[in-house]
């Protein structure tokens, strides 16, 4: 009928679900603690065992990150931050103990190069920003043992990614893939080579 209108229903606002980030700083505190313990124990356990312990810790963190990346296509800041915190403790610990900071400056240079290369790739849309952070943190961590030799992590990661792309194309799958695994494999390879020499 003319003049009649339907009643207006007032909808109650529904509160949006609150995202719980938990305690994102806990992995970084844990990694920092492990790093400090290793630095303190180095005189007791010896340089070679110390390097193996650092390599094992970096490998565990990078494999964990690559597993997360494979499942979610993300590299969570809490875990990349933990790897970076561990790497910084190793660099600072070594710099305090040694009279020369040559190996530490080599590690920092390698990390800066890796970050610059991956940042360029990120601007080109080839990788995500998480890959840039992971590449920098992993190269710094590897460099704490390998020095400037850690710069070889980048071309090795590219080679691993190329093999993965070829394999995926051969299967007829989408060649796009998360790069965390390539970085983790490359980092582990460089670490094992550096510790074995």
UniProtKB/TrEMBL annotation:
Domain Prepilin type IV endopeptidase peptidase: residue ranges: 59-160
Protein name: Prepilin type IV endopeptidase peptidase domain-containing protein
Keyword annotations from UniProtKB, A to Z: Membrane, Transmembrane, Transmembrane helix
Phylogenetic classification of the source organism: Bacteria, Bacillati, Actinomycetota, Actinomycetes, Micrococcales
InterPro entries: Prepilin_IV_endopep_pep
Pfam family, one: Peptidase_A24
Keyword Membrane: yes
Transmembrane portions of the chain: 25-41, 50-67, 79-97, 109-128, 134-167
Record's keyword annotation contains Transmembrane: yes
């Amino acid at each position: 009928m003319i003049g009649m209108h339907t009643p207006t229903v007032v909808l109650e606002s529904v509160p949006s679900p609150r995202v719980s980030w938990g305690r994102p700083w806990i992995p970084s505190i844990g990694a920092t603690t492990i790093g400090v313990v290793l630095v303190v124990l180095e005189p007791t356990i010896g340089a070679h065992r110390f390097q193996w312990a650092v390599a094992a810790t970096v490998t565990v963190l990078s494999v964990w990150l690559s597993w997360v990346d494979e499942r979610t296509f993300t590299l969570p800041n809490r875990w990349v931050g933990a790897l970076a915190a561990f790497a910084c403790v190793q660099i600072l610990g070594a710099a305090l103990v040694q009279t020369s900071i040559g190996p530490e400056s080599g590690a920092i240079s390698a990390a800066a190069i890796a970050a610059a290369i991956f940042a360029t790739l990120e601007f080109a849309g080839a990788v995500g920003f998480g890959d840039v952070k992971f590449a920098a943190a992993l190269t710094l961590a590897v460099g704490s043992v390998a020095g400037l030799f850690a710069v070889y992590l980048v071309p090795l990661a590219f080679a691993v990614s190329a093999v993965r792309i070829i394999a995926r194309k051969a299967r007829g799958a989408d060649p796009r893939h998360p790069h965390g695994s390539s970085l983790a494999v490359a980092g582990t390879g460089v670490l094992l080579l550096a510790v074995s020499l």
